[in-house]
Structures are given as structure tokens and as C-alpha cells.
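Explain the record.
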Amino acid sequence: MNINTTARQDPLDAIAFPDLEYYLTPGDRDGYKDYVGMYFAGTNFLPYLEDGGRDTWNRNDILFTQGATISPLKGLNIRGEFSANYRFRNDQDVQSKVDVIENKDLKNLQIGNGFSATDFIDNRSSDDQYYVVNAYVDYTWESENGHFLKAMVGFNQEWGQFNYIGTKAYKLITPVITDANATTGNQETRSGKQHTALRGAFYRLNYIYKERYLIEINGRYDGTSRFPQDDRFGFFPSFSAAWRISNESFMSSMAGWLDNLKLRASYGTLGNQLLFETNGTTPIYYPYVPTMRSNTSEFMMSSGMKIPYVSAAGLVSPTLTWESVATTNFGLDFTLLSSRLDVSFDAFSRQTTDMLMNVSYPDILGTDAPKSNAADLETRGWELSATWQDRINTNWNYGLTLALADSKSKVTKYDNPTGELPAFGNNNTEYYVGQTIGERWGYVTEGIFQTEDEVANWADQSDLGANWRPGDIKYADLNGDGKITKGDNTLDNPGDQKIIAYEIPRYNFGINANLGYKAFSLTMFFQGILKYDYWPPNDNWQAFYPFNAGHVENYYLTDTWSEDNPNAYFPAPHISSNTKQNVQPQSRYVQDASYIRLKNLTLAYNLPTSLAQKVGMVNAAVYFSGMNLWEATKMRKPLDPEVRPTLTQEYYKQRTYAVGLNITF
């Protein structure tokens, strides 16, 4: 069972209409007997769980794979593979009306349907087919004087078809009969069909000489049905080379302490053909074809009937083609002191060109903007891994591994001639050349207004809201014009905005430690981030908003501004959720999300083999393990550096403890 929906009920509120003397006097009971036992509305989820309908589904996933290999000559292999995947799915959603009491005032009780005002049956069926054919030949040759050669060439063909049909019918005659024919309201039908194809040839060549010089050459030439015919194919080569210096004769004098020393270099390209709708999850199969969307809607004079309509076709790009990612990498590996110390380091530069993106156009366009190869991105970074493993004597051994990595990405091309700044929302699609990915623009917070005089004598903040009062946020006038505004919201005129945070993790690390003594063993794994800003969304239904998912957080009640609490963290609450002046992106609530956490700890004891064998076991071990046992962070509670709260979802990392016995017979 997987429950992803959370609901809350005030513990002081009754779930159902009570039949209690202190609530209803005997003389009044007759007037309310029809309500006794009926559920109240609000955030009470019990009536919907019991009578609100159900979601049922049936899925079949059939995968067939077959292959054959022949070897006509020594070192020569010819292989063919075929796989087919058939997926069938039938879903039915039924939402029934539920009678609940929507007003708890005994003098004005009202019966309604709460969240279930619209009842319907929604049937959906889909069948998908996907086929893959691979055929390749590889040849391996090795000489006695240290030469090794392996070559491979192959062909790949993929084809898929996806079919979907759905019907939705409103106003159930009875929730007992879940059939579209047993409804009296409007009925809708929808369907869709897509196909995709991918064809490519590939090759690989490996050459090694005496384990000193290593060369690998790869390449793919792929074509996809997702692009126009003249731009469907792309070539993506790669090359890598390594020099194991420790195997050279001039390094023999260091053999006593240097076990391995290798230099590496590589350059490679990859292609991306996938485009998605603005929701980021729905794939687009025909981005170069102008398609017209069809749907149904209630129009004027339609008497409540939903009339089908077709919308204007969106614009398309006639030159849509592959997104390309080119990566240059340099690496160093060395092992010292009889393999006690093992170190690996990589530095890389990644150039992403012709990025497939959803481009923003003015609303006056009147239709969908074309998907385009609209941007380039540059990423630079490095990775380090170091391990020390040693044994003190026959009883004691220990080890420590450190992994540390960092990267930074910058936009090098984007069609934004005005330099418009990224929007405040989390689904921003606007970028500018020179932007570091993760930038968060906002206002600088000077503090909280304490008096009416302070409000009157401060810069004009009316552009952000009205009726400013003590307890509201006081923003900094960065450009000195006496007003707090976002200017033109551009790089040239950002108003009083500036970069207040970088919401991309920097310097990610992990630490593995192990310690052994005779039959005891201890392992620990730490992970963390050394540099990370996080601005928690503080709009409605978010963690840093006072009225969150039908309740008010305790920390918001106890740490909001008042005359008696002038040093509070949060501003004074406003009754209306439409009052937004205090929830602008601002520096005050940017969190230092760097942290270190003990993710896992295991302490084990292996019983002596002789003792285990006496009771018929090969071996046995008893252990204690825990997850998320400890952390250090500067984030304000209850925020967690590893969890980003979403709508109605605020469950943070839990500490887990386990004791177990591992027995082998």
C-alpha cells in the first residue's frame, strides 16, 4: 500500500455529529436526529475514504527477449537480439457524492458534498507496444608480445506505438453500479495515438599495449522520428586514452611504494531527442508537426452540454534537431603503500548545445510557442575519491573513504534580448546569458517594522502591497530611489532585487568508515553538502506560510511578531491569504542548507564458527543498525536539508532503528 495523500483534522473538532448530552439536550435531540452520526466536512477525510469512490486498475506487462550468437572464427562473434514489450492497462476512477455537514452551527446546519460535489465515472484504457532489434559483430585479437585489439560494429532499431482511449460520465444514478451507461449527466470521450522510432549504427574500438597504453574509440549515428526529415540524424563520437605510467621501466625504482599511477583523458558527445510538455513529464512525439488540440467545453447557449472544439495549431520549428552534450574529462588514479591508499581525481567540462526547450513568447501570440533548440549550457566540475584501508594487527582493521565533488553550470546562450530576470515561481522558464543555474533573485530584508512612524518614514513599498503596518517586512532600498520595486525586472533595471541565494548544492561529500576488532565490525556512512542555499517557498500551502494545508504550524504561532514579541522570526500574520507583501522572495528566510548526516550505522558481532556449528548453523551474526541517527545543520526547524516540502507533504527524515539476526544453515 502506498498512501501519498495526507489530510488533517483538528483534534478539538468532532469528526461526526455527536449524540451526547452536553451537546444536545434531550428536548433538542428530536430536531437533530437526522444529523446524528453524519460526518462533518472541513479537512475530515473519513467520509471520503468510506463512501467517496475508488480507483481500480488492471495492468499487464509482457516482456519477450530472445537472442542468438554464432562464432564462425576464433575471436569473431555475431549476435542478434530481439525484444518486445506489450503493456495493457485499464483504469477506472469512481467519485461518489458524500453527504456531510458543512456548517457546525446548530442554528444553521447545512448539508453539502464537501470535496465530492461532482460525481463521475472515468474509464481509461491504453495499450503500448515497443520493439527493439540489435545486431552486432565483435572481433577480439591478442598477440603474445602485449598487443590487444577488440572491435565491434552494430545496428539498432527501435519502434513503439502507444494507444489510449478514455470516457468520462457524470451524475451517477447509484454508486453501486459503476458503468458509464448508469449516469444521467454529460459524457466525454478522449483518445490519442502516438508512435516513435529510432534507428542507429554504432561502433567501438579498444586497443591496449602491455597494460600501459589504453585507447578506446566509440561512435553512434542515430536518427529519430521526433525531428523533421532533414534534421533527424546526428553523429556522436567519443574518444578516451589512458597511460599507466607505473608500468613503465623508468618507474621501477618506485615499485616499493607506488602500486599504480595512471593518467586519463577523454572527449565524448551524446545526443538527446526527448522533449516534454511544460509539466516536464508528458513526452512530445511530434514537436515538428503543427497539431490542433481538441477538447470539450461548456459554451454560452449550450444548455450545460459540453461542446467539442478544436484549437488553433501551435507554431513549430522547421529546424528542430538533436541536443548535443560534449564532455571533456581529465583524470588521475594512483595507489600507494601496498594498496593502502587509493586515490582518483577527475576534472571535467561539459558543453550542452542546442538544448531542447519550451520557449516563452508573449501572450499576444495566441497559440503555443514552438519547441526550439534554444539554449547552450556550460558545466565545469571535479570529483575526488580517496580510500585508506589498513590492518594494525591480526585483531584490528580499519578503513576510511572520502568522496567529494563539485560542479557549476552557466547559461552561455539563450534568446532573451531584454535580459528579463527569472520569475519568482519554482516553474521558471526564463533564463539569461551569464546566469548561474540555481540563482534566486529577491529583495534584501532590513528587518520588521516595529512602529507606525517607522512604516511612515521608510521607503514606499506600495508596489509590493498595501496597508503596511508594524509587524510587516521592511525591504532594503538598494537603488536609493525611495521606492521598493522590481524595476523593469531586467538585468539593466532590477529595481531593488539582487541575487539572494544559489539553490544548487556545492561540494557534495560522502564518508564511509569501517572498524573491525576480532568478531566485531562497525560501519558508518556520512553524507552532506558544504555549501547550499535554500529559499523555502512561503506561498499558501507551503511550509513557511501561516495557513498550511488546513492548519497553522506551531512554530508560526509561537514566533510571529507582536508588540510583546518584537524580535520574532516571522512577520505578523494577516487574515487574508491574498496579502502577499510579507511573502516576497527575500534574504531573511534564505536557509543555509549545508549539512552533515549520519545516514547509516551498523554494529555487528559474528558468533564463533564452532559455536554456530554446534547448533546446526554454518555461521550466525547479530547486528544493530540505524538510519538518519544524527545530523548537524543550520536550517531552521522543522525544515530538513534533504527534503523539500511540497503541497500537503511535510514529512521529514525519520530515525530508524533495527536489531537483527543473520543465520546461514
Observations:
- Residues 26-32 form the longest helix (7 residues).
- The two ends are 33 Å apart (CA to CA).
- The chain has five helices and 29 strands.
